[in-house]
TrEMBL record:
Belongs to the HutP family. It holds the Pfam family HutP. One of its GO terms (molecular function) is RNA binding. This is Hut operon positive regulatory protein. Signal peptide: none annotated. The lineage of its organism: Bacteria, Bacillati, Bacillota, Clostridia, Peptostreptococcales. Gene3D superfamilies: Hut operon regulatory protein HutP. The keyword Electron transport does not apply. Antiterminator that binds to cis-acting regulatory sequences on the mRNA in the presence of histidine, thereby suppressing transcription termination and activating the hut operon for histidine utilization. InterPro entries: Regulatory_HutP (IPR015111), Regulatory_HutP_sf (IPR036482). Homohexamer. It comes from Anaeromicrobium sediminis. It comes from the Bacteria. Keywords: Activator, RNA-binding, Transcription, Transcription regulation. The keyword RNA-binding applies.
Amino acid sequence: MIGSMNVARAAIEMAMTENRDIEDKMVIELKKKNIKAVAVNIGGNLIDSIPKIIERALVASRRTGVIKECHVQDGAVAGAARDAIVQVSAKATGLNVGGKIGIARHEEHLSVCIFMSIGLLHLNDVVIGLAHRSLPRE
């Protein structure tokens, strides 16, 4: 049985992929488990980038069929993305970041993970944020 832990793990793994080829292979493997997933690159000043990060998460989720275009599912992705951003913002506020958002869904379970590097001169830090939402089954 696939539950919220499995979906969260899939979102984390998608966010940690190193390149597009690995992403594509992982999407195929997850699809075999009936988990829909997508990853999106993000970067820039965190505070200035928040609306763009949420928008990119929504667009990618719709485009790949992780969610349908409706306000309930849009709200779930946007809310989870925002929660994940809040988790990393304490370390990244005002600094440049670069990384990836991983989004995964199985039936009513939706997870969004943000995995990024925070640049400060030559001293980089790494942060991760994870949020979960429940959606009605399709």
